[in-house]
Amino acid sequence: MIRKSCELDRALSFRDVNRSRVMVRPSRPPLHKMTQIIRRIAPDVGWLPVSFANIYFLGRPGGRWAVVDAGLPGRAAEIIEAAEARFGTGSKPEAILLTHGHMDHIGSARRLAEHWDIPIYAHPLELPYLTAKSPYPPSDPTVGGAIAFLSRFWRAAPRDLRPHVRELPPGKVPGVTGWKWIATPGHSPGHVSFFRASDRVLIAGDAVATMNMDSWSGLVSGRQALARAGTPFTCDWQATRASVNELAQLRPNVIGCGHGVPMSNAELPERMENFAQRFRAPRSGRYVRQPAQTDNNGIVDLPRAPFDPVPFATVASLVLIGIALGAGYLEEQERR
Ligand SMILES: [Zn+2]
Ligand SMILES: [Zn+2]
């Protein structure tokens, strides 16, 4: 099964990334009915979508390897199974590298770190939110759009990844060679991206997305597009814009983000440059004019939360529906 998955992996060209998921049946009793295949997006770079969040695997079977991000909670078993199919049963990575600490990127981190007995690395400015020192700046549903609407129903509890979590060392990516990490703050205070200069492969987390989560059609279809990532969770729009500019200057040939199908084509550097040039913050929102102020201990100060009319409108609609139904019921009672 391992050989089969490796062959499949090698055989898959980048175009295959856009096709429907390839599954193989494992030969031993599986934790899940199907083992997901880690797909190759560049030499020694694998991609595993777990629900709507992506995980990346840096390194090759038989060598040192590391995992970038850890997906949603409760997905550790399928991540381990996919990793074993690619790297070999009993093989383990050197480290879990976090682009940032939002729940969709760290949900299974503790389980994975415990299973493999390995450290988790994050930028120092992200650590307050991973060690129960501070909550993240609150999300901002008033920026508008599909994911912002849905963020009203998303309540992320603070996570404590001690004793596994530690600081990313300066100028070095633990567990892999040829990669560097780049501070790309804005979406979160200590957000980082990973870049391999030799062939300009970029793992960008939520600094940017390859699907438009602000539009309902983009969210449902998952159609490839360079777009803002996690708009309601972004706590500093000016820094986000500067980070997007910095990433565009790297002229990446391949971009794998936290959300969306990874992108790779000859025009990608120009597309990224155009995207950076026309990058706009939302028209309004809590962190558009003023960022959340944070430091090594987490939140220092927050701009005032704008009035969010949607919960009010929802309650008002429910009250009106209740009144209408109640009136109908009373009429019915009177008729009897
Ligand atoms: Zn995020
Ligand atoms: Zn995300």
Characterize the structure shown:
With about 325 residues, this protein is of the alpha+beta class. It has two domains: about 300 residues, Ribonuclease Z/Hydroxyacylglutathione hydrolase-like (Metallo-beta-lactamase, Chain A); about 25 residues. It has nine helices and 18 strands. It has a seven-stranded mixed sheet, with helices on one face. Helix 1 packs across helix 2 and helix 7 packs antiparallel against helix 8. The radius of gyration is 22 Å and the shape is globular. The structure holds zinc ion (2 copies). The site of one zinc ion has 6 residues, from loops.
Q: Gist?
A:
By secondary structure, this protein is of the alpha+beta class. The protein has helices at 2-11, 76-87, 103-106, 109-116, 146-151, 216-221, 237-249, 268-277, 309-335; strands spanning 23-24, 35-36, 39-42, 45-50, 53-59, 65-68, 95-97, 120-122, 165-167, 180-183, 192-196, 201-205, 209-211, 224-227, 254-257, 263-264, 293-295, 298-301.
What is the strand and helix layout of this fold?
Elements: H1 2-11, E1 23-24, E2 35-36, E3 39-42, E4 45-50, E5 53-59, E6 65-68, H2 76-87, E7 95-97, H3 103-106, H4 109-116, E8 120-122, H5 146-151, E9 165-167, E10 180-183, E11 192-196, E12 201-205, E13 209-211, H6 216-221, E14 224-227, H7 237-249, E15 254-257, E16 263-264, H8 268-277, E17 293-295, E18 298-301, H9 309-335
Parallel strand pairs: 6-7, 7-8, 8-9, 12-15
Antiparallel strand pairs: 1-2, 3-4, 4-5, 5-6, 10-11, 11-12, 13-14, 15-16, 17-18
